[in-house]
Structure formats: structure tokens, C-alpha cells
Design a protein that fits this description.
Blueprint (H helix, E strand, L loop, with lengths): L1 E4 H4 L13 H6 L5 E4 L1 H4 L9 E4 L3 H5 L4 E4 L6 H17 L4 E5 L10 E4 L8 E5 L6 H8 L3 E5 L1
Parallel strand pairs: 1-2, 1-5, 5-8
Antiparallel strand pairs: 3-4, 6-7
Bound molecules: iron/sulfur cluster.
Length: 153
């Protein structure tokens, strides 16, 4: 089984109530068993919600208590992001999952450099890497716990 950011699968769980359905990823995973996860919803945040940003560091710093996650209106959502990250890890561990595809450029799911997946002869080929993206709270926790994370742009 593979865990995937729910918004990439078409779930309307993004902050704006929309999704980020990735048809190439769905093709890549067509024969896999998938477990959708949305750490922000698992952390108790509503949908839609105001977007949040990492403040003072990346997801690893949030895990270490050195940075926060704050909404665009200044609400401190750090606890919810941490709760969601640990809930996602719990579900992943419970299902013996070792690989995740997570949505890039997210304060939860972002995992550094993103790849774009392209359908084609080699469906698992990853192209057009986008470097330098920040790592979110859930991605950081999963990486620390030795879960393989692939970031999809
Ligand atoms: S990026 Fe992650 S936390 Fe944000 S909507 Fe998608 S699954 Fe949920």
C-alpha cells in the first residue's frame, strides 16, 4: 500500500476547498493500493480554511519547537499541523506503509525538491525537478521516521 496526499487524488481537501488532482500520478499508481491522507484535516483544521505558512524555519524546525505554522491572519496553527503529522504517521505505520507521494510546496506535505510525473512509456519516470522547495511538517516527520517520501509538484 502507498500513502498519497488526498488532494493529489482529487479529494477537495485543500485550504481553498479545491483539489490538486494529478492524472499522471493516478496513472502511475493505477495498480497500487492507495491510502489517502490529508494531514491538515487529520489535525482538525476545517475545509476550507485560511492558508498557513511556515514561520522561522522548515518542518524539521517545527518538530524541534524552533519554528511555527501560522495562518495568513496570524493564527498559530502549529499544534494542528503537529497533530496532523502524527496522525498521518500513525495511519502509515498501522498499514505498514513505507512509501508516500506527497503534494509539494505545502507547509504540511511539501518535501523539498518536487518532481513532475509524466505519463509515457516509462510511467514512473520523474522529470522537471523543482529544487529548493521547503519541507513541511508531515513530510519532515515521515522522513525522520525513515518513510520514503516523494514530492509531487
Ligand atoms: S497538501 Fe497535504 S495537507 Fe494540503 S490539502 Fe493536500 S493532502 Fe491536505
Amino acid at each position: 500500500m502507498i500513502a498519497v496526499s488526498a488532494c493529489l487524488l482529487g479529494y477537495m481537501c485543500r485550504y481553498d476547498g479545491k483539489n490538486k488532482k494529478n492524472r499522471c500520478l493516478l496513472e502511475v499508481l493505477e495498480s497500487d493500493e492507495i491510502m489517502p491522507i490529508c494531514p491538515e484535516q487529520l489535525g482538525g483544521l476545517p475545509t476550507p480554511r485560511y492558508p498557513s505558512n511556515l514561520l522561522g524555519g522548515d518542518g524539521f524546525d517545527v518538530l524541534d519547537g524552533k519554528a511555527k505554522v501560522v495562518s495568513i491572519y496570524g493564527i498559530d496553527n502549529t499544534k494542528a499541523f503537529l497533530k496532523g503529522a502524527h496522525a498521518a504517521l500513525y495511519k502509515i505505520r498501522k498499514n505498514n506503509i513505507t512509501l508516500c507521494y506527497l503534494k509539494g510546496k505545502s507547509p504540511s506535505c511539501g518535501a523539498g525538491t518536487c518532481a513532475r510525473l509524466c505519463a509515457g512509456t516509462d510511467k514512473r519516470a520523474e522529470t522537471n525537478f523543482i529544487a529548493g522547495r521547503i519541507t513541511g511538517v508531515t513530510a519532515a516527520l515521515l522522513m525522520r521516521e525513515k518513510i520514503k517520501v516523494k514530492s509531487i509538484g
